[in-house]
Each structure stands twice: as structure tokens, then as C-alpha cells.
Amino acid sequence: MITTRTTDNTGGNASNHVSDSSTPIQPFEWLTSPESIGGLVRTQVLLPSGNGAHAPRALHIGCGSSTVGEYLVQALRFGHVLNVDKDGETLGGMEARWNEMQRAAKQEENPQLASAMEFRCLDYTTERLPEGCADSFDLVVDKSTLDCTLCSDCAATASFLMEIYRTLRRPTCDPIGDANDDSSNGRNGGVYMVVSFHEIDLILPLVRDLPGANWTVTHTTMERQVECVATNARGYGSSSSSSSNDDNFGTAASAERQARKPLNVLIARRERGEPLELDFDAVVGHVQEVNDRWFRDEQPLLTEERISELGRAFGVVVGGSSNHDGHDEAGLPSSPPSEQRTTAAAMGVSRVLPLRDAYGVVFTEAEREHLTFEHFLEDWEAFRLEDASANANEPEGTMDFDLALRFLEANQ
């Protein structure tokens, strides 16, 4: 586990460089289109912000080649959008695209609009934005970037969430606009909008219960969009489908879209008070605890059914099948998974499978969509280093039933 994090806030290191690419690139929208979040941005950020005297600022974290930033500036009139990603070449292409759009629209004479979009290359899991970005954004848009950090280590996710929290604007009691206007109630706290493909039982406690975070978190859903991006008249990407959160509220969803698994959307609004900075060790521990609880309680790798299926695949007898009251066919209490493993290993000789074949047996089709064979091999090598007996009795590059169960237990 990583226990340190980079705290460079100068903004001047080499990794902040955006490629000098002058070739615009074709946008790609992951999970959902820019328009699909428009309704939520209006109701959660723009409408509560007062009489409009303040031009809102947004951070698009892990922007890639998405046109969310363009949409916020052109359609929703945000005053400034900072687009951050660790891929400098992609950022360079998107910056070139923005500059070309301004020239085509003859906006060079409007420096305010031209400078509304900023691009910064930064690894948000290890680096910090300049101090001027702290307590400054009315909106942070995250389309599955938090999802990506969860594929890394807990420290990466912790650093990412801490940086998001640090940059959200805290609410103020200063009146906006005319002091004699009773509707002037100050500026609301910034909003962290997370669009995630993860299950709500994982993603909600991760954000809602972040140690030390003073924010309120609400949950909604939106339909997954078709990732076919065209360029509309304004220039920003437009998906071939829409959702109930965009401007076309009356559009009927097709049967195909209704069948899609909905995306989870979290709205975390910054509240008053301290701290601005969160405790790194506490956040790392929280991320680890939430992950462990989710995979142990909600998505266990080793269930009785799975052990039985693995036994059949490896040619061993696991024991009597369990009925609904936890007893086997003979009426005796069924063994827990750990005892079943011992029994199975003692009842016959397991087949020994090459790792390529074992990969197809040990993991379901859905799991293989997220865990490639190459990543499986990396996990296997790490398992071999931790388990000295992993290859004691088998040829290298193979797996038997007992090893399969120990491997799954180690990676639970």
C-alpha cells in the first residue's frame, strides 16, 4: 500500500505540459453525452447560484477527448472550464479543436470566450492542481474517472477524492448582486457530479462517508448513452441518443435504451466549515474498507455455487449440494466454503489446466470483460510471490482446483 502522496502545487513540473499538437481530434464520449448532464447542471449548479452575477467555474476531471467542457462554456455559459487529464497528446488535440472552433466562429476578437477553456496535463492521483484552484470550482464533472481510479490502488483513489474536495468552492454568506434584493442569499457550495457504472452500494458509501468531508450527497440515475459522437452546429459533441436529464424531456426512450443498465449519478454539494484538506491516511483506510466490504459482502468471489462449478471444471467432487436451509441432500449441515475446499482437495485428483484454460474456467464471462488475460497473469505472478507453495506440486504455468480456490481467496 502506498503511504505517501505528491504535494507539488507549483503547477510548473514537466507533467503539466500539454502537447503542442496542432491537429484537432475526433471527440469520444464515455458513458454519456454532454447534453445528458445539462438538466442536472442547471438544477444543481446554475439555478441555485443566485441572480447570475457570478459566472460559474468548472473542473472537468479526466476529460480525455470529451466535449463536456465545450458544452459547459457554449451552451450553459460557464465562465471558465479547466480540463484536466494525464494524456498530454489528447489534451493537445482537444485544445487545437477548441482554437479551430473559435477561428471558424470568428471569436478571436472575444478574448473572454477564447480563454474560457483551459487544458492542463496532470496525474490527478499523485499530483495537485495549483493552490489557486483550491476552494474555487462551482462544479467538478467526473464521467467515470473515479471508476478508473478504483482499478488502481487505494492511495490513488484517496488522492483523487482529496483533490476533488480541496477544489470545491465552499458556500459564502456574501450577497450576490443588489444588497436590497431579498433573493440574494449568497453563493452555494460547489458540486461534485459523479457519473459511474459501478453499483450504488459501492460508489455511494465511498463518496458519502468520506472521512472529514463536509458535503451532502444525493443519488439519481441516468440512461447510458450510445457512444456515437457527432458534431452539432455549436461544435460540441452530441450523442445519437438522449436521457431524461437533458433538454429534450419529452423524448420517448426506445426499448433498447430501456434495457440498458442505468448509470448511477452522485451529487455531492460542499457545505460550510472546515477542513479544506482531508487526512490522507484516514481516506486511504476508508477506501480500503469500502472496497473490502463490497467485495466480501456484495460480490464474494467464493460462493458454494462457484466452488461446485469449479469442482466440475477441474474434475473433483466438492460434496453434497446444499438446499435452501443450508443442509445437503442427506439432511446434514453443508460445509462452509473453506471446509469444502479441504474436502474437495482430498476427494480425487484434480485436472491440471494451462493458465489460459484456467482463466476461462475461474472467471465468468462478465468478469473477463473487466479482467483481461494479461492482467490475470500479473495477479497470478503476484500470487506466486506471496504463496510459496503455489507451484510446488504443479508444472509452471498451470493451475489445479486447490490452487484456483487459493488464488480466488487471495484476490477476494
Automatic annotation (TrEMBL):
KW Methyltransferase (keyword) present: yes
CDD domains documented for this protein: AdoMet_MTases
Q: Which family does it belong to?
A: Belongs to the methyltransferase superfamily.
Tell me which UniProt keywords the record has, alphabetically. Methyltransferase, Transferase
Report the SUPFAM superfamilies cross-referenced here: S-adenosyl-L-methionine-dependent methyltransferases
Name the Gene Ontology biological process terms: methylation
Positions of region (Disordered): 1-27, 235-256, 321-340
Its recorded name reads: Uncharacterized protein
- Compositional bias per record (Polar residues), positions renumbered to this chain: 1-25
Instruction: Drop me one GO molecular function for this one.
Output: methyltransferase activity
List the PANTHER family: METHYLTRANSFERASE DOMAIN-CONTAINING PROTEIN, SAM-DEPENDENT METHYLTRANSFERASE SUPERFAMILY PROTEIN
Can you name the source organism? Pseudo-nitzschia multistriata
